[in-house]
Design brief:
By secondary structure, the chain is of the alpha/beta class. It has helices at 8-28, 44-59, 75-87, 106-112, 124-132, 141-152, 172-179, 200-204, 256-260, 273-290; strands at 4-5, 34-40, 63-69, 93-96, 161-165, 189-193, 209-212, 230-233, 237-240, 248-251, 265-266. The structure holds nicotinamide-adenine-dinucleotide.
């Protein structure tokens, strides 16, 4: 029997409704949560993400600010923008859209954002808190969204083998940190595969929960997946498709059609992990704003 679809869109909708209700409660207390998104340059994919983040914010009743800076913006200019947002009481969350142009040191920008406004969860203070299991910080939106998706679908994680493909700071590594915590929604035995892993299939075939975040179209084939596994596809890649109006289509890291035949649950691309990422960004922004209220 083919796997059931893990409908990230529906769970994200649920979350966004909860965030909108929380926002309304906070507004009634005189605080409107505010998110500032900073976009440097004119990368088309980044522009699409930024637009959808702003729209989602407004839909939830939040205050949304988008700051667009030219591609040749200097580090000093961007630092000044971040400083101003750090000091702005109407802004509770700051997100600087990655990737940044070459002349800017992304690490230094991330460190400049106040940890209590770092709703992307990339500041070393928040990364450290996540690793030690301190829930007081912010967790990166994509891995956090995946964990919520598993939880809300009733996937049992404790004692399970979780294999994560990818070790980036925004997906793979935080996913590891989350899934190995000693909590009911984690408690997995975690294995990480990456670009230097030899015989990746030997690892992925052991996975009860397989999370693919390599950014390599259709890397995960049917024979790499254990029958009955839960498969989460984080990857989003554009591949040429002359039959579509845009000339391309989006595909994940998982060869969906064939893997669906063996998995028990699987996320589609698009419509799986992506919507959860935005929902978690809103949730983090609401939390950041709630914390400013005594
Ligand atoms: P990245 O390029 O920073 O990291 C990719 C990781 O995959 C690296 O750690 C690398 O070691 C590993 N890798 C690459 N090729 C591999 C291979 N052949 N075998 C095993 N491991 C391999 O990418 P990222 O920022 O972590 O994003 C990964 C993918 O997820 C991309 O397609 C990205 O677009 C997508 N993404 C989606 C969302 C979402 O909301 N759905 C959010 C973030 C990223």
């Amino acid at each position: 029997m083919p796997a059931e679809l893990l409908d990230g869109k529906a769970i994200a909708r649920e979350l966004r409704d909860e965030v909108a209700a929380g926002t309304a409660r906070l507004v009634a207390r005189g605080v409107r949560p505010g998110l500032a998104v900073v976009l440097v340059g004119d990368d088309p994919a980044s522009a699409v993400y930024v637009k959808s983040k702003g729209k989602a914010c407004e839909e939830a009743g939040m205050h949304s600010v988008t700051i667009r800076l030219p591609a040749d913006t200097s580090q000093a200019r961007l630092d000044a923008e971040v400083d101003a947002l750090n000091a702005d009481p109407a802004i509770h969350g700051i997100l600087v859209q990655m990737p940044l142009p070459k002349q800017i040191a992304a690490d230094s920008v991330i460190r400049r954002i106040k940890p209590e406004k770092d709703v992307d969860g990339f500041h070393p203070v928040n990364v450290g808190k996540m690793l030690i299991g301190d829930t007081d910080g912010f967790v990166p939106c994509t891995p956090a969204g995946i964990q919520v998706m598993l939880q809300r679908t009733g996937v049992k994680t404790a004692g399970k083998e979780c294999v994560i493909v990818g070790r980036s700071n925004i997906v793979g590594k935080p996913m590891v940190a989350l899934m190995l915590q000693n909590t009911p929604q984690a408690n997995c035995t975690v294995t990480v595969c990456h670009s230097a892993t030899t015989d990746m299939a030997a690892h992925t075939r052991r996975a009860d929960i397989l999370i693919a975040a390599a950014g390599k179209p259709h890397l995960i084939k049917r024979d790499m997946v254990k029958p009955g596994a839960v498969v989460i596809d984080v990857g989003i890649s554009r591949v040429e498709d002359p039959s579509s109006a845009s000339g391309y289509r989006l595909v994940g890291d998982v060869a969906f059609d064939e893997v669906r035949e063996v998995a028990s649950l699987i996320t589609p691309v698009p419509g799986g992990v992506g919507p959860m990422t935005i929902a978690m960004l809103l949730k983090n922004t609401l939390r950041a704003a709630e914390r400013t209220v005594a």
